[in-house]
Amino acid sequence: MSSLQVQLSDSLYKDLQVVSQRQGISVDQWVAIAIAEKMAALMGVDYLEERAKRGSRANYEAALAQVPDIEPEAHDRLPR
């Protein structure tokens, strides 16, 4: 496991202590989770961008053409 030293303002660190205590975890755990969540979000965007590059407008339109043009069921309708 690696270690990371970060400089935080006193007010930010106090807020971090309060939030992590409310969640019942250590400050270190809270920071590790926050970093993991941010990285997952950024990596997800990268993944979607790569998938989009492999996409095909023709394949999209062919798949869309297979969807019947009917009214949605009541539970699937958008509110007006």
Fraction of residues in H or I helices: 55-70%
Distance between the termini: 53 Å
Number of helical regions: 3
* Uncertain runs: none
Largest sheet: none
* Shape verdict: elongated
Structural class: mainly alpha
Total strand count, please? 0
Cα-based radius of gyration, to the nearest Å: 23 Å
State the order of secondary-structure elements, H for helix, E for strand.
HHH
Beta-strand proportion = under 5%
Mean pLDDT: 95
Protein name: Toxin-antitoxin system HicB family antitoxin
Organism: Phormidesmis priestleyi ULC007
Structure overview:
This protein has three helices and no strands. The protein has helices at 10-22, 27-53, 57-65. The chain is elongated, with a radius of gyration of 23 Å. The mean pLDDT is 95. This is Toxin-antitoxin system HicB family antitoxin.
Key terms:
80 residues, mainly alpha, 61% helix, elongated, Toxin-antitoxin system HicB family antitoxin
Summarize the structure.
The protein is an all-alpha fold.
Question: What topology emerges from the helices and strands here?
Answer:
Layout: H1 10-22, H2 27-53, H3 57-65
